[in-house]
Amino acid sequence: MAKYLISEMTWPELEQVAEEKETVILPAGSNENNGPHLPLSLDSIVAYEISLRLAKETGLPVAPLIPWGNSSLFTRYPGTIVIRSEILSELVKDICRSLGRHGFKRFLILTPHLPNIWAFNIAGETLRRECYLVITVDWWRLQNKLCADLAEGKSFPMGHASELATSLLWALRPDLIRLDQMRAETPSNPFYLKHSADYPVLFMYNDMKQLSECGVIGDPTKASKEKGEEIIKRCMKYLIELCQDFQKAGLASKE
Fold this sequence. Notes:
With 255 residues, the protein is mainly alpha-helical. It has helices at 11-20, 42-58, 85-100, 116-128, 139-147, 163-172, 190-195, 208-211, 225-246; strands at residues 23-27, 106-111, 133-138. It has one domain (6-246): Rossmann fold (3-Layer(aba) Sandwich), CATH 3.40.50.10310.
């Protein structure tokens, strides 16, 4: 059976992979509040599971998961682990440089955690000057773009730990959903209510506890396994084509 996880390979096996492939998938998540019905590691589970499925479709190796993110907006919920953006950026640089020494040149970072994006962009800009090519896929925004029509809930179907996120985990790891703990919550903050849908034109940095007591924005009770499977189908189609094109993308020259 083919191996895709770098951490499960021996060094001679990885050496052979590096001779055949220049591209690595790097999953990155977080450990933070996702309401009373979803695990703290939701983002990490999604990043890992989708990366593994993508590897099986493309043959690309998957680097070890980065299980933490900058979750400073969620610090008031127990279990949230916060890694500062500057630390995340340096971590990604070191990972890519380490793998780069052995032949890998392209790195596709898959993360469902929005605050990770800025750290990874900074790392990618630095690594570009070292002749590596780094791109970051923002999973939840990709999912929202391709799957908005699947949502039934009228109140924040793409909020936080809401309908589509819950549906996705239902398809990936149904054993981790606490069905009896699902609850809907809509923020009362008037500014957030008026402008939250303006992303990516407008970025907000709200303390989640000020928006939601239970940690949910939206209605996860509208979720289903069927919606989750459709989400995976649509997003995988996009990601497979992206990987195919990425492997052919030109590398930057040294400045």
